[in-house]
Amino acid sequence: MTDAMHKSGAMVRKVSRMNHAMRSEASASGSLTDLPGCYVLLLHLVEAQPIQIGRLGLIEFPAGCHLYVGSAHGPGGLRGRLCHHLNPVTRPHWHVDYLRTVAPCMAVWYATGESANECAWAAALAQMPGAAIIAPRFGASDCGCAGHLLAFVQPPDASQWAVRAGIEHLRVLKVSAA
User: Fold this and answer.
1) pLDDT greater than 50 at residue 25
2) Which of 71, 96, 136, 171 is 20 to 30 A from 142, alpha carbon to alpha carbon?
3) Does residue 106 contact residue 175 with C-beta atoms inside 8 Å?
Protein backbone atom coordinates (compact mmCIF):
# COMPACT_ATOMS: atom_id res chain seq x y z
CA MET A 1 0.00 0.00 0.00
CA THR A 2 1.42 3.38 -0.96
CA ASP A 3 1.68 6.27 1.51
CA ALA A 4 -0.99 8.15 -0.45
CA MET A 5 -3.39 5.19 -0.27
CA HIS A 6 -2.73 4.76 3.45
CA LYS A 7 -3.28 8.49 4.07
CA SER A 8 -6.48 8.44 1.97
CA GLY A 9 -7.80 5.40 3.88
CA ALA A 10 -7.12 7.11 7.21
CA MET A 11 -8.95 10.24 6.02
CA VAL A 12 -11.98 8.19 4.91
CA ARG A 13 -12.16 6.51 8.35
CA LYS A 14 -11.87 9.88 10.12
CA VAL A 15 -14.61 11.41 7.93
CA SER A 16 -16.85 8.38 8.57
CA ARG A 17 -16.44 8.79 12.35
CA MET A 18 -17.20 12.52 12.14
CA ASN A 19 -20.29 11.99 10.00
CA HIS A 20 -21.51 9.21 12.31
CA ALA A 21 -21.18 11.59 15.28
CA MET A 22 -23.16 14.25 13.41
CA ARG A 23 -25.91 11.79 12.44
CA SER A 24 -26.22 10.71 16.07
CA GLU A 25 -26.39 14.33 17.21
CA ALA A 26 -29.06 15.21 14.64
CA SER A 27 -31.19 12.17 15.48
CA ALA A 28 -30.87 12.71 19.22
CA SER A 29 -31.84 16.36 18.99
CA GLY A 30 -34.97 15.60 16.98
CA SER A 31 -34.19 18.71 14.97
CA LEU A 32 -34.70 17.05 11.60
CA THR A 33 -38.15 16.69 10.13
CA ASP A 34 -39.93 14.32 7.76
CA LEU A 35 -41.28 17.34 5.87
CA PRO A 36 -39.99 18.12 2.36
CA GLY A 37 -37.52 20.94 1.85
CA CYS A 38 -34.08 22.02 0.68
CA TYR A 39 -30.72 21.93 2.38
CA VAL A 40 -27.10 23.01 2.07
CA LEU A 41 -24.31 20.72 3.26
CA LEU A 42 -21.18 22.60 4.38
CA LEU A 43 -18.28 20.26 3.66
CA HIS A 44 -14.69 21.00 4.63
CA LEU A 45 -11.75 19.76 2.56
CA VAL A 46 -8.47 20.17 4.43
CA GLU A 47 -6.13 19.69 1.45
CA ALA A 48 -6.55 20.27 -2.27
CA GLN A 49 -6.86 16.97 -4.08
CA PRO A 50 -8.20 15.26 -7.18
CA ILE A 51 -11.39 13.23 -6.57
CA GLN A 52 -13.14 10.90 -9.00
CA ILE A 53 -16.78 12.04 -9.11
CA GLY A 54 -18.71 9.26 -10.84
CA ARG A 55 -19.28 10.01 -14.54
CA LEU A 56 -18.18 13.63 -14.09
CA GLY A 57 -14.62 12.32 -13.95
CA LEU A 58 -11.54 13.31 -12.01
CA ILE A 59 -11.91 16.83 -10.59
CA GLU A 60 -9.26 18.85 -8.74
CA PHE A 61 -10.91 20.21 -5.59
CA PRO A 62 -9.29 23.12 -3.76
CA ALA A 63 -8.95 23.09 0.01
CA GLY A 64 -11.67 25.02 1.79
CA CYS A 65 -15.41 25.01 2.23
CA HIS A 66 -17.64 23.32 -0.35
CA LEU A 67 -21.37 23.99 -0.14
CA TYR A 68 -23.68 21.47 -1.78
CA VAL A 69 -27.34 22.38 -2.38
CA GLY A 70 -29.93 19.62 -2.53
CA SER A 71 -33.60 18.92 -2.00
CA ALA A 72 -35.66 16.30 -0.22
CA HIS A 73 -39.16 16.07 -1.66
CA GLY A 74 -39.56 12.28 -1.52
CA PRO A 75 -40.44 9.79 1.22
CA GLY A 76 -38.78 10.58 4.54
CA GLY A 77 -38.36 14.26 3.67
CA LEU A 78 -35.38 16.11 5.07
CA ARG A 79 -34.75 13.54 7.82
CA GLY A 80 -34.42 10.70 5.31
CA ARG A 81 -32.17 12.57 2.90
CA LEU A 82 -29.94 14.15 5.54
CA CYS A 83 -29.53 10.86 7.41
CA HIS A 84 -28.22 9.44 4.11
CA HIS A 85 -25.77 12.34 3.80
CA LEU A 86 -24.66 12.07 7.43
CA ASN A 87 -24.03 8.32 7.36
CA PRO A 88 -20.66 6.99 6.21
CA VAL A 89 -20.51 6.43 2.44
CA THR A 90 -20.59 2.71 1.65
CA ARG A 91 -21.46 2.95 -2.04
CA PRO A 92 -21.65 6.42 -3.64
CA HIS A 93 -25.03 7.21 -5.21
CA TRP A 94 -25.03 10.98 -5.79
CA HIS A 95 -22.13 13.23 -6.83
CA VAL A 96 -21.84 14.61 -3.30
CA ASP A 97 -21.31 11.10 -1.89
CA TYR A 98 -17.92 10.93 -3.63
CA LEU A 99 -16.86 14.24 -2.05
CA ARG A 100 -18.19 13.22 1.37
CA THR A 101 -15.66 10.37 1.52
CA VAL A 102 -12.87 12.92 2.12
CA ALA A 103 -14.68 16.10 3.23
CA PRO A 104 -16.61 15.94 6.51
CA CYS A 105 -19.90 17.77 6.83
CA MET A 106 -19.49 20.63 9.30
CA ALA A 107 -23.04 22.04 9.23
CA VAL A 108 -26.39 21.82 7.47
CA TRP A 109 -28.61 24.75 6.54
CA TYR A 110 -32.19 23.76 5.74
CA ALA A 111 -35.76 24.97 5.34
CA THR A 112 -39.00 23.08 4.96
CA GLY A 113 -41.68 23.46 2.33
CA GLU A 114 -42.73 22.13 -1.05
CA SER A 115 -41.86 25.48 -2.64
CA ALA A 116 -38.18 25.30 -1.56
CA ASN A 117 -36.26 25.22 -4.85
CA GLU A 118 -32.70 23.90 -4.87
CA CYS A 119 -31.93 25.59 -8.22
CA ALA A 120 -32.90 29.02 -6.82
CA TRP A 121 -30.88 28.30 -3.68
CA ALA A 122 -27.80 27.34 -5.74
CA ALA A 123 -28.18 30.47 -7.90
CA ALA A 124 -28.34 32.70 -4.80
CA LEU A 125 -25.32 30.95 -3.31
CA ALA A 126 -23.38 31.42 -6.56
CA GLN A 127 -23.90 35.20 -6.21
CA MET A 128 -22.23 35.33 -2.78
CA PRO A 129 -18.77 36.94 -2.67
CA GLY A 130 -16.00 34.41 -3.21
CA ALA A 131 -18.22 31.68 -4.73
CA ALA A 132 -16.71 29.48 -7.42
CA ILE A 133 -18.10 26.56 -9.39
CA ILE A 134 -15.13 24.25 -9.72
CA ALA A 135 -17.08 21.16 -10.79
CA PRO A 136 -19.55 22.08 -13.55
CA ARG A 137 -22.83 20.09 -13.46
CA PHE A 138 -22.01 18.68 -9.98
CA GLY A 139 -25.37 17.78 -8.42
CA ALA A 140 -27.21 19.25 -11.40
CA SER A 141 -27.64 16.30 -13.72
CA ASP A 142 -31.45 16.62 -13.52
CA CYS A 143 -31.70 20.36 -14.24
CA GLY A 144 -30.12 23.10 -16.37
CA CYS A 145 -28.02 24.68 -13.60
CA ALA A 146 -24.27 25.24 -13.89
CA GLY A 147 -23.85 23.24 -10.68
CA HIS A 148 -25.13 22.77 -7.16
CA LEU A 149 -21.70 22.73 -5.50
CA LEU A 150 -19.97 26.03 -4.71
CA ALA A 151 -16.44 26.38 -3.36
CA PHE A 152 -15.42 29.10 -0.91
CA VAL A 153 -12.19 29.79 0.92
CA GLN A 154 -14.32 30.68 3.96
CA PRO A 155 -18.03 29.79 4.27
CA PRO A 156 -20.47 32.62 3.57
CA ASP A 157 -22.71 33.98 6.31
CA ALA A 158 -25.89 31.87 6.45
CA SER A 159 -28.18 34.76 7.38
CA GLN A 160 -26.89 37.01 4.57
CA TRP A 161 -27.35 34.18 2.08
CA ALA A 162 -30.87 33.44 3.39
CA VAL A 163 -31.88 37.07 2.81
CA ARG A 164 -30.44 36.96 -0.72
CA ALA A 165 -32.25 33.67 -1.41
CA GLY A 166 -35.55 34.89 0.07
CA ILE A 167 -35.62 32.21 2.77
CA GLU A 168 -37.59 33.30 5.82
CA HIS A 169 -37.04 30.40 8.20
CA LEU A 170 -33.57 28.98 7.65
CA ARG A 171 -32.48 26.47 10.26
CA VAL A 172 -28.81 25.75 10.95
CA LEU A 173 -27.62 22.44 12.34
CA LYS A 174 -24.03 22.80 13.55
CA VAL A 175 -21.84 19.74 13.55
CA SER A 176 -19.34 19.01 16.26
CA ALA A 177 -16.28 17.03 15.29
CA ALA A 178 -15.93 13.78 17.21
Assistant:
1) no
2) 171
3) yes
